[in-house]
Amino acid sequence: MRKRFLPILIFFAGIILLSLIVCNILINSFAEGKTYSNLTSIPKNKVGIILGTAKNIKGGGSNPYYEYRLKAIFSLFKAKKIEFILVSGDNGSIYYNEPTTIKNDLVSSGVPADKIFLDYAGFRTLDSMVRAKEVFGLDDVTVVSQKFHNERAIYIAHKNELNAIGFNAEDISLESGLKVQLREYFARVKVFIDLALNTRPKFSGDKIKIE
Hints:
It is a single chain. This protein is an alpha/beta fold. The chain has helices spanning 2-31, 64-78, 98-109, 125-134, 147-159, 178-197; strands at 35-36, 47-51, 84-88, 116-119, 140-146, 163-169. It has one domain (2-197): HUPs (Rossmann fold, 3-Layer(aba) Sandwich). Helices cover 47% and strands 14% of the residues. Helix 4 packs across helix 5 and helix 5 runs parallel beside helix 6 (178-197). The longest helix has 30 residues, at 2-31. The radius of gyration is 18 Å and the shape is globular. The relative contact order is 0.17.
C-alpha cells in the first residue's frame, strides 16, 4: 500500500517544491533594481509606507523586525526622501493595534503627528498595497520593510497599478529569522494564488487624501 502511494507523494512534493522555486524567482526578478539599502541612491517619493509587525515577540521580548523598520522609515523622513508616512498594519482587536503603536513610537522619535497617516486595515501585504492605491489615492510609494518583504510588496503593488520602490530595513540573521524566511517562500506562492482568484482586501473604505 505504501509503495503504491509513494510515487504520488513524490509527485506532489515535487509540484510544491517547483512552485516555491518559480514564484520566488519571478518575484525576485521583478523587484531587482527596485529596492535600496542606502539613503543616497533612493529616489524621493511623497509617501513612505511602513508595513506593520508586532512590537514584541511571543514571550515579551522586543521584535527586531519592528525596531529596524521604524529606524528605516525615520531615516527616510529625516533625510527628506519622503514627506509623509503611511502606517499600514493589523488592528484586529482592542488589544492589538500595530498602526497606533508604530505612530506613537514615531512621534516619540520626532516625527510630527500630522505627517503620519494610519491604515488600520492592513491585515496582509495585499491589503496594504491595494488600499494604498484605492483608499489613499497613491500612484507612487516607497515601501519600508525587510528586503524579502519589500520584494513581495513591490510585485503586489505592480499588479495593482501602484508604482512602488522599497527601502530595505536591516534584516536579522538567517538563524534567528529562519521561520520567517521559510514562511516567506509560501507567502510568495500565495501571491499568485491571490492573483488567480482576484482576491480583494478585507475592507475597502472611504478615500483618504494624504496632504
